[in-house]
Amino acid sequence: MKATILPALCLCLLAFLDGSCAASAADMAAGKELATGCAGCHGANGVSQTPLTPSLAGEPDDYIQWQLVYFRNSARKSDVMGPIAKSLDNPAIRNLGAYYASLPPAKPPPAPPSDELAQVGGKLAVQHRCKSCHGDNYEGVGPAARLAGQREDVLLKALRDFKSGTRVGSGVASMADVTFGLNDNDMQALARYMATTQS
Ligand code: HEC
Ligand code: HEC
C-alpha cells in the first residue's frame, strides 16, 4: 500500500502547488526571511525549545509543505497554525519547505541503556515497521515526517491525536492504522525512543 500511496502524494503535491508538474525552483533566501516570523515558536534554527511545538529543521521538504497546506485548508486543525497558514501563498509554502529542509536537525543526546522506556520503544518501532515509511534512520521521507530528534512531547501528542482521530491531515489512514494497534504505554515508549534517536 505504502509503495503506491507515497509517490502518488508527491505527484499531487507538485501539481497542487505549481499548477503543473514542472516544479519551479524554491527561493531559499525568501524562505529564510519568512521563517523569522516562525522562530519565536519553532526556534531560531528550526529547533524548538517551546513545549508542544515541533522542531522543523531537517524535516522533509514535502512534509513541511503538506502540513502547511493541511493547516491552511483546515484538514489539520490548530488554532495557532490555522490562521498563520492562511496567510501563506503557494510560493511562500514552497520557500519555507526548502528552507527548513536545508537546516541541520536537532541532535539530542542518545538515551542511556538504563532508559527502559526507550528500549521498549525501539522494539516496538521494529515490530510496527515505522522505518518502512519514515526512513531507515527515521529521518523522514516525502510526506512522512522526520521522527529522529523530534521533541518527545510533540511525538506523543501526534500519536495520541492520530489515534483519537483529532489529527487527520492527509486523509490517507496510514497513521490511524498504525496507532490503532498501539496503547498509550506503547506511544509513550515510541515517543521517548524517537526523541532520543539521532540521524
Ligand atoms: C505562536 C507560535 C507559532 C508560530 C508563530 C508558528 N507556529 Fe508552526 N506550530 C505551532 C504549534 C503549537 C504547532 C503544533 C500544532 C499541533 O498541535 O498540531 C505547529 C506546527 C507546525 C507545523 C507542523 C510540524 C509537524 O511536525 O507536524 C509546521 C510545518 C509549522 N508549524 C510551520 C510553521 C511556519 C512555517 C511558521 C511561520 C510562517 C510557523 N509554523 C509559525 C506554533 C507556531
Ligand atoms: C504506512 C506508512 C507509515 C507507517 C508504517 C508509519 N507512519 Fe508515521 N506517518 C506517516 C505519514 C504519511 C505521516 C504524515 C501524516 C499526515 O500528514 O497526516 C506520519 C506522521 C507521523 C507522526 C507525526 C510527526 C509530527 O512531527 O507531527 C508521528 C509521530 C509518526 N508518524 C510516528 C510513527 C511511528 C512511531 C510509527 C511506527 C509505530 C509510524 N509512524 C509508522 C506514515 C507512516
Assembly form of the protein? single chain
Q: What structural category characterises the helix and strand content?
A: mainly alpha
| The number of domains | 2
Low-confidence stretches: 1-12, 18-22
Average pLDDT figure:
90
Largest sheet: number of strands, sense, barrel closure: none
> How large a portion of the residues is in β-strands, by DSSP E?
under 5%
Bound molecules: heme C
Q: For this structure, what is the CATH homologous superfamily of the largest domain?
A: Cytochrome c-like domain
Question: What's the N-to-C terminus distance?
Answer: 26 Å
Summed up, the helix count is 11
CA-based gyration radius: 16 Å
Helical content class: 40-55%
Keywords:
199 residues; mainly alpha; Cytochrome Bc1 Complex, Chain D, domain 2; 2 domains; 11 helices; 0% strand; globular; disordered N terminus; binds heme C
